Amino acid sequence: MSDIRTADAMTIRRDDPDDVVARLEEDIIFGRLAPGARLTEDALMSAYGTSRHFVRQALVEAERRGIVRREKNVGATVRSYSAEEVRQIYEVREMLTRQAALMIPLPAPPSLIDELTGLQRQYCAKADLQDLRGIHEANDALHVALFAACGNPYLVRSLQHYMNLTLPMRAKNLADREGLAQSRRQHELMIELLKGRDSWALAQLCVDHMQFSKKDYLARIAGEEAERQGADS
Questions:
Q1: 204: burial class by Cβ within 10 Å (0-12, 13-18, 19+)?
Q2: What confidence tens digit (pLDDT) does each residue in 38-48 have?
Q3: How far apart are CA 216 and CA 233, in angstroms?
Q4: DSSP 8-class letter at 6
C-alpha cells in the first residue's frame, strides 16, 4: 500500500463514500495498486483517511465494476486477468459496440455532433495536460454519449459495464503518446462518419478503436509470463 498517496494529499471528505470509491478506482486503474495486490481495510482507512464503513462500501462498488475481487478467507485483492479472460471480455465488448454503432441513425442530428465535438475538445485539453483522470472521464463521456444515440438504454448500460471491466486494461495507455494521438484521430473520424450514412464504416472504426489497448495489455501479460518462466528456469 506504500504507493497510495496520503490522505492529506488526497483531501478526501470522511463523509463522502463516492470520494473513497473514486480514489480507490484511480489507484487501481493507474497502476498505483498492482494486479493481485491485497486490499486490507486498515491500510485503506489509513491511506484514505476515512472510516471502515466507507472503505467497505468502496470495495463493494469496486467489485461491482470488476476491478476488485473479494473471496472468502482471502479478502479483497486487485483483480488480475488472464490472457483468455481479456480476449473473452473484449469479444463481448466488441459485439456490443458494433451493434450499438449500427443502430445509430445516420446522418446524426447536429445536436449530437455538437455534443461530441465539445467532449472531444475536453478530451484533447486533458490529454495536452496529461491529466489521466480527466482523460479517462472525458473519453468515457464521449463514448457513452455516442452509443446513447443507438436508442437502447439497456444496450448502453451493458456497454458501460464492459467499459468498466476493461478499465485496468486500457488505463496505462492514457499516458501513452502514440495511443493518445491515435485515439484523438479516431474520435475525430467517428464524428465525421456520423455526418454521413456509412453505418458499417462507423461500426468498424468503433471496434478498431479499442484494439490498441487490448493488444498492449495482452503483450504485457505475455511479457510477465516470460519473466516468470525465466525466473523459474
A1: middle
A2: 999 999 999 88
A3: 26
A4: P
Give the tens place of pLDDT for each residue, 25-36. 888 777 788 778
Q: Which three cell numbers stand for residue 199?
A: 453505418
CB environment 219-232: b (16+ within 10 A), e (fewer): eebeeeeeeeeeee
Peptide bond into 107 cis (omega under 30): yes
Q: How many residues does the chain have?
A: 233
- Interacting residues of 114 by C-beta distance below 8 A, sequence separation 6+: none
Determine the Cα–Cα distance for residues 115 and 118; give it in Å rounded to an integer.
5
Mean pLDDT of the region 9-28: 67
List, in sequence order, every residue forming a beta bridge with 38; answer none if it has no partner: 77
**What's the whole-model pTM score?**
0.79
Q: Reduced to 3 states, what is the DSSP secondary structure of residue 31?
A: coil
Contact 18, 47 (CB under 8 A): no
3-state secondary structure of 71: strand
* CB 213 within 8 Å of CB 166: yes
